[in-house]
Amino acid sequence: MTISSAERQIRAALPLIRFMQPRLPLPIANWLIQQGVAHVRLEPGVIQQPVSANNVPCHWLIPQNSPANRALLYLHGGGFVFGLSPQHLQMGAWLAQKMHTRILMADYRLAPDAPFPAALDDSTAAYHWLLQQGIPAQNIVVAGDSAGGNLTLTLLLKLRDSGEPLPAAAACLSPVTDLSRDHAHPEHRDPLLSPRAMQLYTRSYVGNHDARDPWISPVFGDLRGLPPLLIYAGEDEILRADALQITEVAQAAGVDVRLEIAPRLWHVWQLFLELPQARQSLEDIAQFLSSHIGGRQKNPVNPVNPV
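Above: the chain's sequence. Below: its structure in C-alpha cell form.
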C-alpha cells in the first residue's frame, strides 16, 4: 500500500511524541497546551465561543447557519491528565463543518488532582446543560477519543443507569475500555502511545477505586439499551484489544455496534488532519452521527430489572 508524504512526515515525528508523553511534567505539558488553545486557528466559518456548562469549562464550535436544536458533545482524549488541545479543537471544527452541527467540547477536570469520578461527573454535567438549553436528547450525539472514548461509554452507562434520556448515537475513537488491563505487554508496538504512558495515566485516573467498576472500565458493564455505537481503532495501536473487547460486549448485549480497524495506523490518528486516512475516518464518523440525529428516542434499560 502506498504511503502518503503526509504519513511519512507524521511517522518521523511520532517517536519524539511517544518518548515525551510520560516524561514531560504535567503542569508544563498542560501550560503548553493552554498556550496552543489560545492561539489555535480553526476551519473558516466556524466560530469558537467559550461557555460554562454547569460550571464545566467548554468551547462551543458553531458553524455558520447551523441549527440551534442539535449538538455533538465531544469528550477529548489525553489520558485523563491532559486538557483540551489545539488538535482536538481543529478536529472538532472539521467535524462541525461536515455535520453542519454545533459541537460542545468539554474541558473536564483532570487527574491526578481530580481522579475518577471527576471527569465523568463533568461530562454528565455538560450533557445535562445541553438538555437545559432545550436540545432534545434525540438531537444530541456524543463522541470522544482515547480517555474521551472511555468517558463517552461510561456517560452512556451512567445516564442509562439513572433512567435519563440517552443521546441518539455515539462514536469512540481508540477508546480505552479496560483500565484493569496490564498494557505493559501489548500485542503491537503503538508508534504513538507507550505502555509506560498508559500505566501513568491509568494510575492517575483510577486512584484508589476498583478499576473493574463499569463506570471506570465499561467492558465490565451491562451495555443493554445503549444507542448505536461506532468504534474506531488502529491496527498497530496499544488499545486495539480494548476496542475489540468492547465491541464483543456490546454485540452480546444487543447493541447496534460497528467496529472499524484502520490498517497500520496508530492511536487516534484522526487528530492528524493532514493524513488522508484521518479525513476518511472523520467523514465516516460525521455521516454516522448525522444519520442518527433526530431519531426516535430510546427508553433506557435498567440492567438489573430490564423492562
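The chain has a mean pLDDT of 93.
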